[in-house]
């Protein structure tokens, strides 16, 4: 029997989907994705989730609502740590429990713990635990995961070559055969934020696509070499123990200090405690090196018209500074 495994198209989908898809497919499962985020998914999430949760968590609940009657299992792992001495966002630690206690009539939830702080064997044990749903053959489970890692590394190579994740996933899923590259793109814009804010085109209101239509080359933290990220984040007086924070700050410090970008846009969901720290670090560095910086805050009430106006003004300012008056303030 082939089980249908539901994967919500939200949160860590934008980090690990190629890995998950390959693993479950190798075990004979059928992957069922929720739709791209839309207004009805957002409304369903807002209705089923607690008011205090941030927008990405509310949206995740909406994706679960859409999937719950279509699948045999929901895949909602408890991500605690994916690197030694580092943690992920607190909302990811309690995500399975939040969903299970907020939404009725759910199918069984695969909520294994991923925690590399405990031991190197934790990931192996979690993989075996998931695989036991489909087969009792540990060798088959290990083989499926090894193949998934291999395919995931191919996906990561696309990122290393400058392909942002939303485009890389399209290639991975064979939606497109090649990447469209911009010709004669003079300006480079660093778009920062958590992957689930950057690459969800409903939440970000297609900000990346709009920049590309203006012939701006978009750079995100995911395409920056991890060695450079680790080197530049080490300049902080204390170790940053948030994995996403290290990636965002390390990538931005490298690109700012190397004068590799013409402007920075940070997309943040309202009420994100982690972002309140990261935004301050990045904006201070940008101000020191006179790199234009703007913050776009999103929540369930955000309107596209306001974001478009901000974006147009930001692009105009970058072009004006380059052509006319380089001394114009980057921060108002």
UniProtKB/TrEMBL annotation:
Pfam families: DUF2229 (PF09989), HGD-D (PF06050). Signal peptide: none annotated. It comes from the Bacteria. Residues 4-224 form the DUF2229 domain. This is DUF2229 domain-containing protein.
